[in-house]
Amino acid sequence: MSWRITLMAIASAVVCTTATFALAAGGVRSLAHTAGIHFGTAVNVEALGTDAPYSRLLAREFDLVTPENAMKFSVIQPERGRFDFSQADALVAFAEAHAMQVNGHVLVWDQQLPDWLTQGHFSSDELKAILREHIQTVVARYRGRVASWDVAAEAVGEDGKPRETFWSRGIGADYLALAFRWAHEADPQARLRYNDYGGEGAGAKSDGIYTLVAGLRTHRVPIDAVGLQMHVSLNDAPRPEDVRLNMKRLAALGLQTDITEMDVMLPLPASRAALKKQAVLYGAMLQACLAVPQCRSFSTWGATDRYSWIPEFFPGQGAALLFDASGHAKPAYWSIKLALLTKASHKR
Ligand code: G3I
Fold it and tell me: Dmax of the chain from CA atoms?
């Protein structure tokens, strides 16, 4: 009898090891699927057409894509009434060709607004009409093809109070509720999200975001999720436990959450020790997401260090992503895979 038990134990160990190896050998997206979340990144659309290894890496590793800039107001509507969807269409086509979900980014934001808009001296009613036309033209074009939208972003200040923005000054405080309603009218099936940075864990801004979205829910505004951007550094990152608790309290409002734009900037040249600490941070934030059923996706803000926004905006900093500038996996990549493998093995 004991030889039978021994054989079964060996067989199960082989099966488990084989399955684990098979899971580990594939891209992250297959592990993420097994663990029950989408794994995404922001896409540099210009590079899609010029950098074949980059495109192949995206298709292998990610099942969710967000246009880094291709769907921003100034790109989509550079002149009043003239819409340019060329970059956005290219991204959506790439996603559909590789069985990826698309997160549309970003309908209402205070940056990358065209001069015709910011210098137009429009009345409140004119601005409402302009914003409604923009949102409904863009969302309707991708109805059924873009699964979720960052309807609004970064509308809460560091102090937790509503931030004064071009839109709040021009339309009034109800611009956010209007934007969500207009987006919902254009595509009732789309998942609508508020997306922000600096409020991922505990603190005044986190509380301010919570208050904002709780108010939207109270007024039956069609908001489905909150995006936690997670732009951090080794010395400036939320506690993973605080992130998990924040996700839980947002879930209690009926809201899903996502980690939407994670990157961990490092002083350049990045040391081995810093890369290891970066790996720990990525793994810990993913584990916080995996611990909350309502956390539905984990995305980085860029796939490779070659296309990261960080060096331009933070001189001397970089190496913020999972793959280096040549597309080679960094320690953070393996930390992400280990967290997903661990989750997947617990789901069996
Ligand atoms: O496309 C123009 C080009 O024609 C022009 O010659 C050049 C020089 O002026 O500018 C180019 O546009 C730049 C654009 O990136 C595309 O490269 C803008 O100036 C530049 O401001 C813009 O930066 C983007 C930034 O958002 C502002 O929109 C970054 O790439 C992008 O990574 C960053 O992403 C944001 C998210 O949307 C929201 N969350 C924060 C995150 C980081 O700031």
Answer: 86
